[in-house]
Amino acid sequence: MDKREQISSLRGFGYNEREAAFLAVAALHSGYFLRRQYCAFIGTGFGYPDKLFIDRALELRHVREISLRYRRKLYSIQSRPLFEALGEIDNRNRRLHEPQTIKARLMSLDYILGKLDASWYPTETERISLFVDQFKIDKQHLPAKRYVSRNGGKQTLRWFVDKPPIFTEPPDKTVWFCFADPGYHTGDAFVSFLTDYRPLFARLERFGIIYIACYAASAHRGKAIFNRSFSALGTSPVDPIHSELSQYFEDRHEHETNGLAGFDHERLNRYREARKRFSNRRTDDLFELWRNGGAAAMIADLCPESAPDIHQRCSFSIEMIDQNYELFGGFPTAAQGADDHKSAVQVSL
Prior knowledge:
- This protein has three domains: 1-96 and 332-349, Arc Repressor Mutant, subunit A, CATH 1.10.10; 99-237 and 305-324, no CATH class; 241-302, no CATH class.
- Helix content is 45%, strand content 14%.
- It is built from twelve helices and ten strands.
- A hairpin with a 6-residue loop joins strand 7 and strand 8 (175-181).
- Helix 1 crosses helix 2 and helix 10 crosses helix 12 (281-302).
- The radius of gyration is 25 Å and the shape is elongated.
- It starts with a helix and ends in a 29-residue tail after the last strand.
């Protein structure tokens, strides 16, 4: 289902074009929105259009209105029929999240609303299509998480569960990944993000990271972490199997060149075990790379995230969001009943 089809589907509920388009963006990218964000989307101040939209969404039970301190309102999009109309019935944006996650989602939505001309990929299906179908990257290199059912009988593998905003700006081939920092006390979350996504980054011709922040200190810390991770002098991860393959390739080359006469008993046993273990087409291709270009050529193919030039293919920029999110005072931490459209749960940020 493409964007036009999603908007048309939402209009079937009675929304006008602008309302349906905003709901699609907010639901798929965030799961939450603020009234001012809808006003920014349609290019007006507070008034009748936004009141009409909110009232309609509440009446249809497509959103929940959550009351926060200072008379602020947060809207959570949790309607199953709405997500079903978008073709995303299993989308996890329907769930309530921790306060920092909600704040990060709102920050990301602010950034997205200011860059709607870009090509965005908010859903798992769109992202897999982008990287697997368009860029021909194997699924095993995409960030994934395995979920196990409560009874342990069923396992489900999901990709991009942290849902970072991802976009491109054709014809430029750079793929941009956004990381929103709502004010984390440490840089651990960004370090984990870079680690989890590095196998994917390394297989892209060009990629960029946009660090979305609302505090200068967070932005400076993010830049320092990025520089350490992608510095030309930084250490790069290497697949631990490369040393075993290098030893096998040396033995195999010796065997094919001079026979087994120079092998002692220990080396011969090791070689036989390695031949059983590495008997496949992939290893044969790596052997040819090793024979023609040495260990460096093999490692570059086996583990491109270790390539010394990865820093030359990436860009980093900081996007400061000029909004005072602290005015909201608090966020909900647990889902309320289906009939409860208003909540006064206060959770300090």
